[in-house]
Amino acid sequence: MTTTRERGAPARAPAPDSDRAAYRATLLELARADGRVWCLDSDMGGLERQFEAELPGQYVDLGIAEANLITVAAAVASTGVLPFVNTMAAFASARALEQVKIDVAYHALPVRIVGTHSGLSAAHLGPTHHAQQDLAIMRGLPNMTVMTPADPAETVRMVRASAYLPGPVYIRLGRNPTPPVYTDDADFTVGRAVRLRAGGDVTIVAAGALPVRFALDAARRLAAAGIEACVLNMHTIKPLDVAALVEAAETTAGVVTVEDHSVLGGLGGAVAETLAEHRPARVVRVGVGDAFCSRPGSHEEQLAQCGVSRDHVVRAAESVLRGRPDVRISTEQGESP
Q1: For the Transketolase-like pyrimidine-binding domain, which residue ranges apply (predicted)?
Q2: Which of residues 3 and 173 earns the better pLDDT score?
Q3: Are strands 37-41 and 59-61 parallel, antiparallel or unpaired?
Q4: Residue 34: burial class (beta carbons within 10 Å; 0-12, 13-18, 19+)
Q5: Measured in Å, how far apart are the chain's first and last C-alpha atoms?
Q6: 227 in Cβ contact with 332 (< 8 Å)
Q7: What gap in Å lies between CA 233 and CA 308, rounded to an integer?
Q8: Phi first, then psi: what are they for 204, rounded to 5°?
Q9: How far is CA 233 from CA 172, 195, 212, in A?
Q10: pLDDT digits (tens, 9 = 90+) for 159-177
Q11: pLDDT by residue (tens digit) across 51-64?
């Protein structure tokens, strides 16, 4: 397990309302303290006003040319620079995949790839901009660390922790403001899940802002019916917290995974693979089905259409518990469908 403590962190983190805003503020903070930290942009908008205006010598805009962006990042990283690459998750994981694989991962270079608009958060921009497969792609690359935060406060801790990790890192961010999950300045350890709620009936493992929120909302609804769900924020997809998953399999009836990603190869796949090898248990995956989402709607509306919502998590937990005589399932009483 890879563990990193925050370096030079202030007593209290900034509190922007989106993980993207939190990331940008933290990147600037890191770059002020360390001239090796560079911002490589792909015409994402805003970074030139926020970062370049203050630190022009540590900022390069490569334009909408993601393959070139990754190759340049690899080149400067080989000279001792710590580049943070800024692009959309769909483009980092698909359009520039060959460069990520060969130029960055193969050489284990310290390039931090920050993909925004992950999952279905690009919403109305449609399947061309949706990133349903990025976790599956990135976690399959040797040497790559893969992480996704639950809220802006965790984004701050994650970005700080990532800055000095060995090898490449992929950080998966959303687009719009999301509500806070944490109420304090919690510690952050790469590769170690965070237990957000204790429970002995079923375990819900979630990754990303909306999935974690859906998991917590589902746990509260289950608790109203007398079912206690443990909720784990699996912010690091690779390396995965094997010990936390084994404990969940041994102490609860099974595991539900929740993600803003395809059910194929992402968090659900990683959890199922791990438990199949270390401690076989029932796993139900809540994620985007094996289809593109071309229906209009907001981020949450599109996720619900594709099978990801609080109610989908509740039904998955019920599925895990069904067959256990000591648990009575009655969560639907008095609830809207």
Answers
A1: 17-181
A2: 173
A3: parallel
A4: middle
A5: 41
A6: no
A7: 16
A8: -110, 120
A9: 14, 6, 7
A10: 999 999 999 999 999 988 9
A11: 999 999 999 999 99
CA distance 3 to 190: 5
Residue 239: cis peptide before it, omega within 30 degrees of 0: yes
Token digits of residue 43: 């015409």
Strand pairing category for 145-147 and 236-238: antiparallel
Rounded Cα distance between 103 and 74, Å, is: 6
Amino acid identity, position 85: V
State both tokens at 324. Answer: 């256990």
d(CA 110, CA 37): 11
**Which tokens belong to 209?**
């802002």
pLDDT at 323: 58
User: Model confidence over 286-335: pLDDT tens digits?
Assistant: 999 999 998 889 999 999 999 999 999 999 999 999 856 455 444 443 33
pLDDT in tens, 240-285: 999 999 999 999 999 999 999 999 999 999 999 999 999 999 999 9
- Residue 125 burial by Cβ neighbours in a 10 Å radius (0-12, 13-18, 19+): middle
Question: Residues 25, 45: contact at Cβ < 8 Å?
Answer: no
